């Protein structure tokens, strides 16, 4: 059977390249692939009310409804309806860690549950003083935002931590009842843990299989995007999918499982999807025509074969595509890897590589290292957490100053809208939240005005929570419509009040919270992403240089462990670059200074992906030492120009005969930087002229006043 190699490993034989003893044929690059239109974040009807691409979240919706109804009903029976709300919210642990392997998820969800208990304890301890409670909710929002981002806890992120903390401030009782509130929240968290883990009894390896299958599907989308204007965007999405699959598969490698044949098969498939992605990158940047649809359909079929080996497509379907191709062409290499991936998928099991299999990486980085790196000056996590904490605290304090009793809803709304990210997305989310709440309040008031027994109220709240999770991936506006009745039901159960008064207060609190969230996004660290963008491009170029020098150096061949680290670090830097740019481009009104950098970002990304593709070759063609030195100097000049915000004085690039597209992208990068600097200079001149004109007007007004 075939030996399975970990990601980045260079096999000693059995290469997937058509002729491993010779370099891959690289055609001369005469035409550069078209640069995609830059991302655009807008406040318009489509952004507010249109549905995002993707499917409906049926599975998580059902889990959320089951977890809430079970925990809510159990807490009502054991502790009474007024504190049962804490159990219902505590059960929302089921919304976290949806994609991770069950072994890792069991520990992660337990920590999330402990976090809920801690937040409930903080809210209950500060409930005696509303001003202190408002500050404590803000502190919880800031700290949890930091922890969620530093530890890569996916959405809903800090929202439900803030929600349980806020609701606990109105739970009946005093400091003596804090243990009771914590116990109720722990009960709900335990129910959510059980519902989330229940699926593992039937499909214990489903998360890993789904992640690899999603990577193949995104690869199919990349193959369809070759030769189209959306190439750069789909390339980024494919890279994210591959990186996510590697993380999830790595998290699943427990001591007893990683040496098993099924685990070896899954790693083999993941290696192939990673290598096919890089081969597709080479093809995408060397042609302007679309590939035949058979290639993308074949990749889609491989996604199904991850979990169903018997449905693996026949590699003979690719024979028609190979006709007329040079044996060592980039397209032939791509189709060869697709065929080899099908051979790996057809086997239900693979022989493991032996006891003590090395994966060249830890399943997850050390905890303290992740927290420490999130506090560094170049990290976006620190300003994001500070923005969240300060805004939520001030929003609650402002509500108290205005005499609003339910100030905590202002804090909760501010938390929800600030999770959008940049200014434009925050404005969209604020409008969606306000409009959705107006409609949801009407629905909630109608539900509460009917004399429903508690046995009907519990499943009603669970149904609204399920509907919220069903639609929230597609549009936050429709999710807000469903979320508001659920929140009204829980708030009315915890603190019964007249329905009309509760509905009016909910509308006012939502509007104030939305305004507070927008103000926080505009006033606090608005340019954090834009200020870090040049340094992020520098990081990509520096890592790309390291990879290229390692690939081209004829005297040093990186081993499997170093190859894996190089590939991991560069892919992570490329994904981070696009994320920072997407955040910066929505930080209006200063986003105009970021827009000219889009061609720079694209050229840097393409150079990085081409370096990754070269790293994936078994025997990449080397370069002379003089060429390596000149290449190093060229990267030095590009990096210095970015840091100093000046036009690069690049001169003649070293000629990389075997890698012509890398030369092309470096030239494009230099040209894009020159254009961006020129636009910055023109913008600075116009700003200087406007300031001078304002000064002249002011001076003239003073003269007129004297006369």
UniProtKB/TrEMBL annotation:
Keyword Transmembrane among UniProt keywords: yes
Membrane topology listed for this record: Multi-pass membrane protein
Pfam families linked to this entry: FUSC_2
Region of interest (Disordered), ranges: 1-28, 675-707
Location, primary (coarse class): membrane
Keywords from the UniProt entry: Membrane, Transmembrane, Transmembrane helix
Compositionally biased intervals (Basic and acidic residues): 679-692
Domain Integral membrane bound transporter intervals: 394-518
Descriptive protein name: FUSC family protein
């Amino acid at each position: 059977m075939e030996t399975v190699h970990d990601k980045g490993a260079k096999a000693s034989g059995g290469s997937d390249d058509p002729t491993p003893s010779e370099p891959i044929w690289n055609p001369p690059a005469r035409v550069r692939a078209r640069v995609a239109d830059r991302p655009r974040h807008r406040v318009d009807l489509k952004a507010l009310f249109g549905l995002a691409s993707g499917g409906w979240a049926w599975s998580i919706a059902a889990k959320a409804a089951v977890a809430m109804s079970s925990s809510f009903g159990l807490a009502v029976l054991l502790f009474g309806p007024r504190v049962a709300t804490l159990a219902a919210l505590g059960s929302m642990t089921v919304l976290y860690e949806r994609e991770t392997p069950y072994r890792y998820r069991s520990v992660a969800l337990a920590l999330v549950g402990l976090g809920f208990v801690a937040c409930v304890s903080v809210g209950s301890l500060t409930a005696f003083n509303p001003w202190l409670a408002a500050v404590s909710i803000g502190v919880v929002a800031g700290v949890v935002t930091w922890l969620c981002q530093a530890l890569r806890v996916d959405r809903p992120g800090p929202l439900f931590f803030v929600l349980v903390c806020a609701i606990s401030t109105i739970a009946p009782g005093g400091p003596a009842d804090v243990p009771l509130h914590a116990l109720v929240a722990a009960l709900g968290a335990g129910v959510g843990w059980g519902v989330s883990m229940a699926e593992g009894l039937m499909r214990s390896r489903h998360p890993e299989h789904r992640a690899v299958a999603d990577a193949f599907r995104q690869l199919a989308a990349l193959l369809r995007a070759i030769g189209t204007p959306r190439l750069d965007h789909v390339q980024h999405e494919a890279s994210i999918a591959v990186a996510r699959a590697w993380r999830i598969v790595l998290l699943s490698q427990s001591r007893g499982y990683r040496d098993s044949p099924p685990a070896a098969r899954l790693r083999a498939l993941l290696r192939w999807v990673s290598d096919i992605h890089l081969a597709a990158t080479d093809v995408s940047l060397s042609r302007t025509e679309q590939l035949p649809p058979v290639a993308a359909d074949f990749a889609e079929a491989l996604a199904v074969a991850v979990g169903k080996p018997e449905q693996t497509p026949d590699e003979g379907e690719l024979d028609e595509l190979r006709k007329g191709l040079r044996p060592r062409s980039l397209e032939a290499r791509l189709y060869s890897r697709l065929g080899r991936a099908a051979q790996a998928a057809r086997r239900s099991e693979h022989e493991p590589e032996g006891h003590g299999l090395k994966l060249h990486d830890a399943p997850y980085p050390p905890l303290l290292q992740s927290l420490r790196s999130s506090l560094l000056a170049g990290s976006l996590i620190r300003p994001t957490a500070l923005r969240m904490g300060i805004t939520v605290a001030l929003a609650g304090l402002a509500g108290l100053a205005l005499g609003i009793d339910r100030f905590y809803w202002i804090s909760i709304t501010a938390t929800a809208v600030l999770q959008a990210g940049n200014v434009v997305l925050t404005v969209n989310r604020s409008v969606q939240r306000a409009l959705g709440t107006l409609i949801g309040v009407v629905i909630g008031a109608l539900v509460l005005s009917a004399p429903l027994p508690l046995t009907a109220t519990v499943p009603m709240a669970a149904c609204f929570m399920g509907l919220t999770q069903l639609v929230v991936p597609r549009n936050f506006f429709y999710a807000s419509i469903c979320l508001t009745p659920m929140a009204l039901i829980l708030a009315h159960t915890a603190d019964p009040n007249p329905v009309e008064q509760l509905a009016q207060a909910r509308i006012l609190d939502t509007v104030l919270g939305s305004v507070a969230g927008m103000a926080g996004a505009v006033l606090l660290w608005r340019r954090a992403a834009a200020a870090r963008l040049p340094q992020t491009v520098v990081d990509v170029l520096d890592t790309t240089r390291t990879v290229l020098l390692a690939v081209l150096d004829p005297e040093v061949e990186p081993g499997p462990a170093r190859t894996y680290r190089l590939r991991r670090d560069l892919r992570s830097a490329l994904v981070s670059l696009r994320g920072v740019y997407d955040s910066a481009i929505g930080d209006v009104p200063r986003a105009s200074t970021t827009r000219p950098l889009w061609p720079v970002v694209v050229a840097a990304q393409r150079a990085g992906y081409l370096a990754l593709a070269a790293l994936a070759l078994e025997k990449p063609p080397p370069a002379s030492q003089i060429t390596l030195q000149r290449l190093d100097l060229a990267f030095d000049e590009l990096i210095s120009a970015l840091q100093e915000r000046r036009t690069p004085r690049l001169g003649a690039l070293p000629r990389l005969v075997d890698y012509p597209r890398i030369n092309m992208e470096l030239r494009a990068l230099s040209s894009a930087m020159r254009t961006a600097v020129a636009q910055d200079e023109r913008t600075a001149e116009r700003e200087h002229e406007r300031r001078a004109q304002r000064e002249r007007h002011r001076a003239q007004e003073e003269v007129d006043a004297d006369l």
